[in-house]
Design a protein that fits this description.
Strand content: over 45%
Number of domains: 1
Order of helices and strands: HHEEEEEEHHEEEEEEEEHEHEEEEEE
CATH topology: Porin
Distance between the termini: 13 Å
Number of strands: 21
Shape: elongated
CATH architecture: Beta Barrel
Oligomer: single chain
Structural class: mainly beta
Number of helices: 6
Radius of gyration: 24 Å
Largest sheet: 14 strands, antiparallel, barrel
CATH class: Mainly Beta
């Protein structure tokens, strides 16, 4: 009965836990679970509860025999400002994101199994309709990307030294985007990946049709363009997709004081993110509309192509320096380069258009293929931390997380500035008794700045926090 109740709760949470987040190791969180989060994210070689499903599944074998149920809530509080020469600064109003997580595990003899739901990470910003980010369109712009996982783990203690583990993950992603572009920026998007209409499934090119309507000057006659697909949900994006991934891990107890750990997280295999509720708006002037600036709204569908989460390798150590003090250190390499080469989107116009201007241009059923070069670098992450038992009930923790910025300055977009490099963290754990405990963590993210090839600058900083309740039985 206890397992059934926990499992039902996990499945309910699965429907709610894809809130978009602004993460701090690229699009990853700096740490999963408050124990690891407080210690710079280090998690490869000690028991950190059900957060092991996101970290190293082999550490599940280090827990005491019995059942453990964890329920957690995390908060990300970014502070993001976009700047452009001669323009007022644009502060992002997306300043708080909340992410639930839940897991249940059972260790019986040498075998550990269970289930869990976790928010993986993502990114999000929102700028006002009067900011330079709106490109004169008079509407706000925003981005939200969120990724979550339902995870089934299995770990086995081979002997007193070795434990191995793995997970099968169902991964789903959601995206909202309200993006405004100048005519020049829109032209860059339709030509950024070679100017060919190769990854849209529909026939016909909306850009070609517009070019004909404007005597070959569709893009030069465009004042601004918008791409809009967004909903009001705090937990799911308008465009959605899903697929699978897996993790493998191992721990080795080198001595009574030293434990080593390593893990491999596969690249995801997710389908395109799709929505049938999207729109494009193009404000143009020129012969096609008598020289008067006119906004052409077109309803349709969006496909975001081949958005994947990267492969990760990690290894680390936990050293019990004394009965009270544990020191931990990890290294991770996150393979952003393989999955963040470009951002590809296809907009397909509805077969019929209610707006007479759009109908006059014959845009029904036609497509616009767009792309943005990303060329992210792989990310190296160093994580260091310590935990000190003040008493049998109280533990205090601290750590640091240091990583390179994976986003090249040239291609940094103020809607997606995943540029943070350092987290300074701390936290506490308190055991009420042998069954119940709470853990809390807080991380400060010092401001990082980057300026892209178009002269726009972003300052990104903020903080994050996590709170966990654990019940053992």
């Amino acid at each position: 009965m206890k397992f059934s109740r926990s499992a039902v709760a996990i499945l309910v949470l699965a429907a709610l836990s894809t809130q978009q987040a602004y993460a701090t190791n690229g699009m990853n969180l700096s740490g999963y679970g408050p124990e690891a989060h407080a210690m710079g994210g280090a998690s490869m070689a000690y028991d950190n509860g059900t957060a092991a499903l996101m970290n190293n599944p082999a550490t599940l074998g280090l827990m005491e025999e019995g059942h453990r149920f964890d329920a957690a809530i995390g908060g990300l509080f970014p502070s993001i400002t976009a700047k452009a020469p001669t323009m007022p600064n644009a502060d992002s109003s997306a300043t708080a994101f909340y992410m639930p997580a839940m897991g249940w595990i059972n260790k019986s003899g040498k075998l550990v199994y269970g289930a869990g739901v976790f928010s993986q990470g993502g990114m999000g910003t929102e700028y006002s309709a009067t900011s330079f980010m709106a490109a004169g369109s008079g509407e706000k712009v925003r981005s939200e990307v969120g990724v979550g996982r339902v995870i089934v783990p299995l770990a086995y203690q081979l002997d007193e030294q070795f434990t191995v583990g793995g997970t099968v993950d169902y991964v789903w992603a959601g995206m909202d985007l309200k993006m405004a572009l100048t005519g020049a920026q829109f032209g860059d998007m339709v030509t950024a990946l070679g100017g060919t209409q190769t990854y849209g499934s529909a026939s016909g090119s909306m850009v070609s049709t517009l070019a004909g309507a404007f005597g070959g000057g569709a893009l030069t006659a465009m004042n601004w363009a918008r791409v809009d697909f967004s909903n009001s949900s705090a937990f799911t994006g308008q465009a959605q997709g899903g697929g699978f991934a897996f993790k493998l891990g191992a721990t080795f107890k080198a001595s009574s004081d030293l434990t080593l750990g390593a893990t491999f997280h596969s690249k995801t295999s997710m389908g395109d993110m799709n929505t049938s509720s999207a729109s494009m708006s193009m404000n143009v002037d020129g012969p096609g509309v008598g020289g008067v600036p006119t906004t052409i709204p077109v309803s349709g569908s969006i496909s975001v192509h081949n958005f994947q989460w990267p492969q990760t390798i990690g290894f680390g150590a936990a050293y019990q320096a004394s009965d009270a003090l544990m020191l931990v250190a990890d290294y991770k390499r996150i393979g952003w380069k393989d999955v963040m080469k470009d951002f590809k989107v296809t907009f397909t116009a509805d077969a019929t258009q209610a707006n007479p201007v759009a109908t006059g241009f014959g845009l029904g059923g036609q497509v616009v293929d767009m792309g943005m070069i990303q060329n992210w670098d792989d990310q190296n992450v160093l994580q260091f931390g310590a935990a000190y038992k003040v008493s049998s009930a109280l533990t205090v923790r601290g750590g640091v997380n240091v990583a390179n910025n994976p986003v090249p300055d040239k291609y940094m977009n103020p809607l997606f500035p995943a540029i943070a490099k350092t987290n300074l963290s701390g936290g506490v754990g308190y055991a009420f008794d042998k069954q119940s405990s709470i853990d809390a963590s807080f991380a400060y993210v010092p401001t990082t700045s980057a300026t892209n090839g178009g002269g726009a600058t972003v300052d990104f900083g903020g903080s994050s926090a996590q709170l966990l309740y654990s019940h053992r039985y």
